[in-house]
């Protein structure tokens, strides 16, 4: 603590200004006095000292690759996705995998991965992973639910203007040598109503941007949310569709959101309105949308996601992939983009940093905070001076009596910290124990691992 002078006159304000403020000097003094008191966390490693191998696919940020390698992990990095058969052949030798939206981690893949400890989805969605199969195998799944929100919101704003001005059609015509200057059917977005379905991180950011453009904003969400700015929540999807000039979707893929915009909902939209989908491909019934555009009830659409998407760049987007693809491509004033909503340098860097940190915290410290399919458990770090402390990470089936058995195994030792939680069929216990001889650890681990409910037991030291 900063000392207080005993002489009151010594704290009088100086008449001459100095280069630093009293706040700067106070912070410097606090830093100087407390720097020796900071308790540095100890870097933990698996007891088995096995070199951890990480597979990163789909051109995940090189910053994430560098971060993993700096921690001593072996990293294999590829710009392409892998099919299920390719994963079945490769996954067995890896302890962690990072993917984006194209690679599918199915139950078969999980069963073929005996060493796999953690999965990182370097994107918002996790529907490309069988989350329950991963949880049953003791594998937490992490994602980045917020990092590309701004990128998607900005893409929507560009699509609003491009649709209302028929920008893609005019640009294509000029590229083919046709000069077609016209204003018929082209509008300003100022004064128009934007309907946002799903007022989460993307929807709320979009709300602010749209109001800055002079738009009126309505939103529909399954929960009551305090709006930003002048946005207004409506009580039903039908009301939003009926009042909006533009409708944009920002919902996850769930059983209740599949085909949530189909023939009936398109009919409820205003004649001459526009639909934008940057959420998930199966949220919109695309054949119904095709019909609505052909009938001129819908004036245009922007689609960045599709029910089936190519696994690699250069792969055809054709009728073999989606039976309606060629018809959709021929429609006027329809913007089709290859799932680029979060594809900006800024978003990919933030996603790479966030998911890489989550995976590193789990591999090195056992923390599952932020896992989408797993109980969220964490303990404060073991400090550097506690060289004889061991962290036990025990994943087990969520059934009665397990904690009693684990604590009986730990009873000869001083349990410094312990925390457990459960989610569905899986439970997770972390405990830090002190004064453990390294000669005792193999036997202790064997005792805990032999519990009937055991899924995975790791010791970090």
What does this entry look like structurally?
Keywords: Amino-acid biosynthesis, NAD, Oxidoreductase. Residues 54-373 form the D-isomer specific 2-hydroxyacid dehydrogenase catalytic domain. It comes from Agrocybe pediades. The longest helix is centred in the last third of the chain and has 21 residues, at 345-365. The model is unreliable at 1-20 and 29-38 (pLDDT under 50). The protein is built from 15 helices and 16 strands. The protein has helices spanning 22-34, 62-70, 84-90, 107-111, 131-136, 149-164, 167-175, 201-212, 237-243, 263-268, 286-294, 325-329, 345-365, 402-410, 441-449, and strands spanning 53-56, 74-77, 96-99, 118-121, 141-142, 193-197, 216-220, 232-233, 246-249, 273-277, 298-303, 334-336, 390-397, 414-423, 426-434, 454-460. The two termini are 34 Å apart. The protein is α/β, with parallel strands linked by helices and 461 residues long. It is elongated, with a radius of gyration of 28 Å. The chain folds into three domains: 53-146 and 350-358, NAD(P)-binding Rossmann-like Domain (Rossmann fold, 3-Layer(aba) Sandwich), CATH 3.40.50; 149-336, NAD(P)-binding Rossmann-like Domain (Rossmann fold); 380-460, ACT domain (Alpha-Beta Plaits, 2-Layer Sandwich). β14 (414-423) and β15 (426-434) form a beta hairpin. The strands form three sheets. It has a seven-stranded parallel β-sheet, sandwiched between helices. 38% of the residues are buried.
């Amino acid at each position: 603590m900063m000392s207080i002078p005993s002489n009151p006159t010594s704290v009088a304000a100086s008449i001459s200004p100095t280069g630093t403020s009293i706040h700067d000097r106070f912070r410097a003094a606090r830093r100087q006095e407390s720097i020796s008191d900071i308790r540095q966390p100890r870097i933990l490693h698996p007891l088995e000292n096995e070199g951890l191998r990480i597979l990163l696919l789909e051109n995940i940020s090189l910053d994430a690759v560098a971060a993993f390698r700096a921690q001593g992990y072996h990293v294999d990095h590829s710009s392409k996705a892998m099919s299920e058969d390719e994963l079945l052949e490769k996954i067995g030798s890896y302890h962690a995998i990072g993917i984006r939206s194209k690679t599918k981690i199915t139950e078969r893949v999980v069963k073929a991965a005996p060493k796999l400890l953690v999965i990182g989805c370097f994107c918002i969605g996790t529907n490309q992973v069988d989350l329950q199969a991963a949880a049953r195998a003791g594998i937490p799944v992490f994602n980045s639910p917020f990092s590309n929100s701004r990128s998607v919101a900005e893409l929507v704003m560009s699509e609003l203007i491009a649709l209302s001005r028929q920008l893609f059609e005019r640009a294509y015509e000029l590229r083919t040598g046709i000069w077609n200057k016209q204003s018929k059917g082209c509008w300003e977005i100022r004064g128009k109503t934007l309907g946002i379905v799903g007022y989460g991180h993307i929807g709320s950011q979009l709300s602010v941007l749209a109001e800055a453009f002079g738009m009126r904003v309505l939103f529909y969400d399954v929960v009551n949310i305090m709006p930003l700015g002048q946005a207004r929540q409506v009580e039903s999807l039908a009301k939003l569709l009926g009042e909006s000039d533009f409708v944009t979707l920002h919902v996850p893929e769930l059983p209740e959101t599949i085909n949530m915009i189909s023939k009936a909902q398109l009919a409820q939209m205003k004649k001459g309105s526009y639909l934008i989908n940057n959420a998930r491909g199966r949220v919109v019934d695309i054949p119904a949308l095709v019909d609505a555009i052909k009938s001129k009830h819908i004036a245009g659409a922007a689609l960045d996601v599709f029910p089936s998407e190519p696994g690699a760049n250069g792969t055809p987007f054709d009728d073999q992939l989606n039976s309606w693809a060629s018809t959709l491509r021929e429609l006027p004033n329809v913007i089709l983009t290859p799932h680029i909503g979060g594809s900006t340098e800024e978003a990919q860097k933030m996603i790479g940093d966030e998911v890489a940190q989550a995976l590193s915290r789990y591999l090195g410290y056992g923390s599952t905070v932020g896992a989408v399919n797993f109980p969220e458990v964490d303990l404060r770090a073991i400090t550097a001076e506690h060289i004889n402390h061991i962290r036990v990470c025990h994943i087990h089936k969520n059934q009665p009596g397990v904690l009693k058995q684990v604590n009986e195994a730990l009873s000869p030792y001083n349990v410094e910290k312990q925390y457990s939680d459960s989610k569905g069929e899986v439970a997770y216990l972390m405990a830090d124990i002190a004064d453990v001889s390294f000669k005792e650890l193999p036997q202790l681990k064997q005792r805990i691992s032999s519990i009937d409910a055991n899924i995975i037991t790791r010791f970090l030291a």
